[in-house]
Write a structure and sequence with these properties.
Elements (H helix, E strand, L loop, with lengths): L4 H17 L2 E4 L12 E16 H11 L3 E5 L7 E7 L4 E5 L2 E20 L2 E24 L2 E13 L4 E4 L2 E4 L1 H26 L2 H12 L3 E4 L4 E12 L3 E3 L2 E16 L14 E3 L7 E10 H12 L3 E4 L2 E13 L2 E10 L1 E14 L4 E9 L1 H10 L1 H4 L1 H10 L1 E3 L1 H13 L4 E4 L2 E17 L3 E16 L4
Helix pairs in contact: 2-3
Length: 465
C-alpha cells in the first residue's frame, strides 16, 4: 500500500497546479430589468413664432372668385326714381398704395332714370335707360379682428369710359350731373360689397386652424426608436396686420407643449374649439423647442462594445477582457452587464446613473459600482477586480457619444422647416441654431436626452386655394 503513496501524492500535486492555472468562475445574480413606464414626458412650455405672409395676388384671386357677375341690384324705381344693376366687367386688381389696399373695379351699369311727376293721380313720367361702363377706384384700411382680415373701404373715384348722355327734346344732353348723384346712392353698397368679399376671402381662421392641426399632428422623429413628437397648443397670439410691398404680413405665435413619446403613434391633443386668438403688439422672432435624442439600450451597448475592444483590465498576471456589453434599466439606474474572460470568467454587473457631458456630448454613468451580489462574489474570488482603480478604468469605457442621435433629431426637425407644406398654398421654412442639453430620462427601451433648440420659423401663403 505504501508503494502507492508517491503516486497519489503526484496526482494531488498535479491537480493543485491545474487548479491554480484555471480561471476563476463567477456566477453573479443578474439584476432583472424592470418597467420604466409611462413612456411619456412633458417638457416645459415652448414658444413657436409663426410670421404669416400672404401675397396680395392671392387676396386678389380670392376676391375675384367671390365677387363675380352681378354685384349690385336695385329694382325699386319708386323710392328714388332710379333702377340700377351693376356687373363686374373685368377682373378686380388689388395693389398696395401707401399701406392701404387699392382696389380697381371695372364695372358695367344698366340704369333707368325716371323724370316727371304725378299730379291729380296722373303719372307724367319719362323714363330713360342708360348702359354705361367705367372704372371704380377704392382704397381700404386694413385690420385683423377675430382671425379675419377686415377692411374699411372708401370709393375714391368713378371714371366713365364715355360721358353719359340722353336725348332731351331732340338733343344729346350730357347727363353726368344726373348719373353722379345716383352713384352716391350705390356708393356705400359697392364699398360694403368689397369689404365683405375681402373679409370672406381672407378669413384666416379655417386656414390657420387647418395648418395648426397638421403641425400639431404627432410626427415620427425616428422609426427605428419609435419616438414621436406631439405639439399641443395653449395660446395663439397675433399682431396687427400690415401691408409691405406686395405682401400682407401678420406675426403670429403659439405657446405650446412639446411632448416626446416612445412607442406607438399617440393621439393628437389638438382641439380647435379651445384655441383663442390674443392680440399683442410684438412677438419674438425666435422659436424655442425641445427635441429628444433617443438611444436604445442595444445601440448604446453596441457603441460601448467598441470602447472595450482590445482592452485588458487588471494588473500583472491578473487580467480580464470584456467580450460583450449589455445594458438595461432597473430602479432608475442603468445596469451594465460585462461578459469577461481571462483570470475571471463569467458576467459581472455594474450599476450607475446616466449623466451627460456637455463638452463631449457623451452619456456617462455617475457613481458606477458593482451590483451588490457581483461585489460580494468578487471580494471572495477576485478581490483585485473589485478594487477602485480597476473599476475606474472600466468606467472610462462605459460612455458613448449621442452626437449621431442629436444630429438625427435635429435633421428630423429640419425636415419640417424646409419648405414643408402642411396644406396647399401654405409653406413652412426656418432654421435651428444652438442645441442646449436639458435632462436625461429613462424608459424601458431607451435613454432619452432632452435638448432645447432655438431657431426661427416662417409661414408663407402662396397660391392659397
Amino acid at each position: 500500500m505504501l508503494k502507492f503513496l508517491p503516486f497519489l501524492f503526484a496526482i494531488l500535486i498535479v491537480s493543485m497546479i491545474a487548479s491554480c492555472s484555471t480561471s476563476n468562475k463567477i456566477a453573479a445574480l443578474k439584476p432583472e430589468p424592470d418597467d420604466a413606464s409611462p413612456l411619456m414626458y412633458e417638457t416645459a412650455a415652448s414658444f413657436i413664432n409663426l410670421p404669416i405672409s400672404v401675397k396680395l395676388k392671392d387676396i386678389e384671386n380670392q376676391t375675384n372668385t367671390i365677387l363675380n357677375g352681378l354685384i349690385y341690384e336695385d329694382n325699386n324705381i319708386e323710392d328714388d326714381n332710379i333702377e340700377m344693376k351693376i356687373w363686374k366687367l373685368a377682373p378686380i386688381s388689388i395693389t398696395n398704395e401707401n399701406g392701404k389696399l387699392k382696389t380697381i373695379l371695372p364695372l358695367k351699369a344698366a340704369i333707368k332714370y325716371r323724370i316727371g311727376t304725378k299730379k291729380l293721380g296722373v303719372e307724367l313720367y319719362n323714363t330713360k335707360e342708360f348702359n354705361l361702363n367705367g372704372v371704380v377706384t377704392l382704397t381700404s384700411d386694413v385690420a385683423l379682428t377675430n382671425w379675419k382680415l377686415n377692411t374699411k373701404t372708401e370709393l375714391k373715384s368713378l371714371d366713365w369710359n364715355e360721358s353719359p348722355t340722353m336725348v332731351v327734346f331732340g338733343k344729346n344732353m350730357p347727363v353726368t350731373y344726373l348719373i353722379n348723384p345716383a352713384v352716391k346712392l350705390f356708393r356705400s353698397k359697392i364699398e360694403s360689397k368689397i369689404d365683405a368679399a375681402i373679409e370672406k376671402s381672407m378669413d384666416f381662421k379655417p386656414n390657420v386652424l387647418a395648418a395648426l392641426e397638421k403641425i400639431c399632428s404627432p410626427f415620427q422623429m425616428s422609426e427605428a426608436y419609435e419616438s414621436w413628437l406631439r405639439i399641443t397648443p395653449i395660446e395663439i397670439y397675433s399682431t396687427d396686420a400690415v401691408l409691405k410691398s406686395d405682401t400682407f404680413l401678420m406675426d403670429m405665435g403659439m405657446k405650446c407643449f412639446m411632448t416626446t413619446l416612445v412607442g406607438t403613434k399617440p393621439e393628437s391633443k389638438f382641439d380647435a374649439s379651445k384655441i383663442i386668438l390674443k392680440p399683442v403688439t410684438k412677438i419674438p422672432n425666435q422659436i424655442t423647442a425641445n427635441i429628444a435624442a433617443v438611444s436604445t439600450f442595444a445601440e448604446a451597448a453596441k457603441i460601448m462594445n467598441k470602447n472595450f475592444a482590445g482592452q485588458e483590465f487588471g494588473s500583472g498576471s491578473k487580467k480580464v477582457t470584456v467580450q460583450k456589453v449589455d445594458i438595461w434599466h432597473k430602479n432608475d439606474k442603468m445596469v451594465i452587464a460585462l461578459d469577461v474572460i481571462g483570470t475571471v470568467n463569467g458576467t459581472i454587473y455594474l450599476t450607475g446613473f446616466p449623466q451627460y457631458n456637455e463638452q463631449t456630448k457623451e452619456i456617462f454613468f455617475d457613481k458606477l459600482d458593482y451590483a451588490l451580489d457581483t461585489k460580494n462574489k468578487l471580494m471572495r474570488t477576485a478581490n483585485w477586480l473589485a478594487q477602485g482603480l480597476v473599476l475606474r478604468k472600466i468606467q472610462e469605457s462605459c460612455r458613448y457619444s449621442i452626437v449621431p442621435n442629436l444630429e438625427e433629431g435635429k435633421q428630423t426637425m429640419a425636415n419640417y422647416l424646409k419648405n414643408y407644406s402642411p396644406m396647399p398654398g401654405v409653406f413652412i421654412n426656418g432654421k435651428m441654431d444652438n442645441l442646449q442639453f436639458q435632462k436625461v430620462q429613462l424608459t424601458n427601451k431607451a435613454i432619452i436626452a432632452f435638448i432645447k433648440v432655438n431657431g426661427t420659423v416662417n409661414v408663407s401663403v402662396d397660391g392659397l386655394k
